[in-house]
Design a protein that fits this description.
Elements: E1 3-8, H1 12-24, E2 28-33, H2 37-45, E3 51-52, H3 56-61, E4 65-68, H4 72-83, E5 92-95, H5 101-106, H6 108-112, E6 116-122, E7 143-147, H7 154-163, E8 170-173, H8 176-204, H9 210-214, H10 218-222, H11 230-239, H12 241-263, H13 267-282, E9 296-303, H14 308-318, E10 325-329, E11 337-344, H15 347-360, E12 365-367
Parallel strand pairs: 1-2, 1-4, 2-3, 4-5, 5-6, 7-8
Antiparallel strand pairs: 6-7, 9-11, 9-12, 10-11
Helix pairs in contact: 8-12
Bound molecules: 1,4-dihydronicotinamide adenine dinucleotide and 3-(4-hydroxy-phenyl)pyruvic acid (ENO).
1,4-dihydronicotinamide adenine dinucleotide binds next to helix 1, helix 4, strand 6 and helix 11.
Amino acid sequence: MKGRVFVIGLGLIGGSLALCIKKEHKDSIIIGYDIYPEQARLGKMLGVIDEVADDIVEGAKTADLIIISAPVIETETIIHLLAGQSLKPEVIITDTGSTKRKIVANAASLKEKGYTFIGGHPMAGSHKSGVSAAKEFLFENAFYLFTPEDHIEISKVEKLKEWLKGTNAKFLTVTPDNHDYLTGIVSHFPHIIAASIVRQTERLAEGESLIPRLAAGGFRDITRIASSSPEMWKDILLHNREVLIELIDKWQEEMDWVKVLLEQENSEGIFRYFLQAKQYRDGLPVREKGAIPAFYDLFVDVPDYPGVVSEVTGYLAKENISITNIRILETREDEIYGVLVISFQTEEDRGRAERCIHSCSSYATSIGT
Ligand SMILES: NC(=O)C1=CN([C@@H]2O[C@H](COP(=O)(O)OP(=O)(O)OC[C@H]3O[C@@H](n4cnc5c(N)ncnc54)[C@H](O)[C@@H]3O)[C@@H](O)[C@H]2O)C=CC1
Ligand SMILES: O=C(O)C(=O)Cc1ccc(O)cc1
């Protein structure tokens, strides 16, 4: 497709969408604006956008597609600002916010002016922020939720999907209320729990110098999302507070139940508690990319000698395969082999890496679940 695409808020998500759009629609012109001009300039330097707009008004007036990818409370303000401008009558305006109910309600001001707003949420990301973390493959295989209101013409939704085809995401349509309920459960609430576990550990670590060292590995894995942007999550929580308050009440009931099981030394009950959780988790789709992204891990059995890590990463570097993380699983002292766990952004990268390691070495590899 041809046309001018204006991205407002050039961070991780706005930058990644810009890359996806350019990949699929080579003739489009992507203009970026960020409240921090250096972010937009960096975006241009990195080739994420074609042009920098000096302000929202300038960038919006000639745009065929406007993508707002700022924090959700800022998004409301930007919607009202756009509603006061003279835009192209056919323009499609969308957003990427993690909440939808309040944003779509605010978009009534755009509807009054005859402009089309279609709420959107690409449900993939990372705990990183900023345009330098933007990736063309970020949304590959992820769900992309849309919340068009009933008055929106289907052809407009189809056009938006065509613009966003390069994300290779799975498009779904839900109502704004349903969106906030579902994402509250699988994304927003887990972020609160991750942060609360970290906070509790920090409090209890006072005078216990071993805690930070013991909290490596599994603890870091399950609390990774506590490293997400506090600014962004503050806004998400405020936007979805009703749903989250309800979920906190339910969680407190859950904790009360665990406490009762412990007080009663109810061995059978505790066993069933974990068994039920294991059965449900084990049944969740492994290949589906959910709200909290999985890493694509590759396990490599390597001999335990100095330099083996750089040897393996060297093979991958030669083939230009990017890795997102690398760690060594602790080995027993009597073992001569260790396990290198390398994480990739996409399943495709992991497949390429596996083939590359097989062709350059005799190391065995396997894929985790
Ligand atoms: N980070 C993630 O994993 C995901 C985030 N989202 C949503 O996407 C939106 C963007 O998030 P990220 O890209 O991760 O954040 P980010 O922090 O990487 O980027 C947001 C950008 O918006 C800019 N900004 C803030 N206020 C602005 C304003 N008034 N006008 C113009 N620019 C402004 C910031 O300077 C920043 O560069 C948020 O609404 C977030 O809820 C959705 C899916 C995943
Ligand atoms: O890894 C993480 O931090 C995430 O949970 C990614 C994420 C953040 C916000 C969203 O609305 C959707 C996905």
